[in-house]
Amino acid sequence: MTIETKPTLTAIHHVGVTVTDAEASAAWYERVLGFQRQFEERHFRSDAGGYTIVLGPPDSSFSMGVDHHPGNAGDNFDPTRTGLDHLSFQVASVDALHAWVAHLESQDVPNSGVYPMEGFPLSLVTFRDPDGVQLELIAFHA
Q1: Which one of 26, 64, 66, 134 has the lowest number of neighbouring Cβ atoms within 10 Å?
Q2: C-alpha 46: how far from its chain's center?
Q3: For domain 13-70, which architecture applies?
Q4: Looking at residues 97-109, what average pLDDT do you find?
């Protein structure tokens, strides 16, 4: 009898989001979320001209790529289609969520305000990036 050990995952390293305008999206993520531009690279084994601008928080705890694909028809994001539904970032506290709401409003980013998730010990704020990708900020109640 053989007992198989499943390999483990340790963290999410990065996420890539296809956008209609990589430079505009990178600037938005820098301005709104405080990400810093880490580097830019061509898509692996791509001769079509696709590239990624890689961004992340100052502590480099993860990274996010905003991806330019030459074949992108310019359609806005649709969470009901196969692929990404939304992206959620955890923050330290509900007080931090309130600070984020104030920041988002100072950047003219429409948002949901802080609301508790009924039946769960957490609250969140939702908003959208320039292509309509829903982003969330989430905090567990103390």
Answers
A1: 134
A2: 24
A3: Roll (3.10)
A4: 96
